[in-house]
Write a structure and sequence with these properties.
Blueprint lengths: L1 H12 L1 H5 L4 H18 L11 H9 L7 H9 L2 H18 L8 H7 L10 H11 L1 H5 L4 H17 L6 H7 L1 H9 L7 H7 L4 H33 L1
Length: 235
């Protein structure tokens, strides 16, 4: 799990690079996407790196409320920023108490899966369609920011293990510039922040995302049809 711990250190040192700001909620969503992606690829069990941390936090906070570790830390600390930095201290304490003998090194896991034929992960069918249908199940709450972080985590994990992006993933990369052009935004703000800015709240922004994304895909399909028609006319 050395790559995971290295990633945590990098996020702690430079949160803006990964999640835009020090935020426990954004961190939680990014890690969910990252660990889920590794699980889909066959490298780890679902959520293996943080297994037991949620129960540990519940016991520490003396609560039985069904809440994520991020929600518990946020409640204790009172702000996204304070909770973000507290997480690293708490997680380090948790690891010291955990039986390290049960945590295999990442290199061993990679050797066990060196002959693995990677799944061609379809970002539309396996992530976006599921989130659109049941956002609470995948994101906790209907939030475009959480969606953005989960997708970043998925992509980050795949890059780290050397899995090339699928055609749908490459197509999704153009959504950022499409949103900027649609709203006339020339700044470096992410597509999620742009959509959120023009929405009432996170919930409305998430609904608007799916509308815009469908529009984006339809425009791409129309462009492909036009290009193919042009080629056919030439021949």
């Amino acid at each position: 799990m050395s790559n995971f711990f290295r990633l945590l250190q990098e996020i702690k040192d430079n949160p803006v690079m990964y999640i835009d700001k020090p935020s426990i909620t954004c961190l939680h969503s990014l890690l969910n996407g990252y660990l889920s992606s590794l699980s889909h690829l066959g490298f780890t069990q679902e959520g293996y790196a943080t297994e037991g941390f949620n129960e540990w936090m519940q016991e520490r906070a003396k609560t039985k409320v069904s809440q994520s570790w991020a929600g518990i830390i946020l409640f204790i600390c009172g702000s996204e920023r304070n909770a973000f930095y507290s997480f690293f201290e708490l997680f380090e304490k948790f690891l010291k108490q955990k039986d390290d003998s049960k945590i295999p090194e990442n290199e061993d896991v990679l050797r066990l899966h060196q002959d693995l034929r990677f799944r061609q992960f379809d970002i539309y069918n396996e992530i976006l369609k599921g989130i659109k249908k049941r956002p609470g199940m995948f994101l906790g709450t209907s939030s475009i920011t959480k969606l953005d972080m989960v997708l970043r985590g998925y992509s980050l994990a795949r890059r780290e293990v050397g899995v090339p992006p699928t055609e749908p993933e490459r197509e999704f990369e153009g959504f950022q510039s499409w949103v900027q052009e649609k709203y006339g935004i020339k700044s470096g703000q992410s597509w999620s922040k742009i959509i959120l800015f023009y929405s009432v709240d996170e919930y409305e922004a998430l609904q608007k995302f799916f509308e815009l994304f469908e529009e984006y895909l339809n425009e791409n399909k129309s462009s492909e049809v036009d290009e193919n028609s042009g080629l056919n006319r030439e021949y």
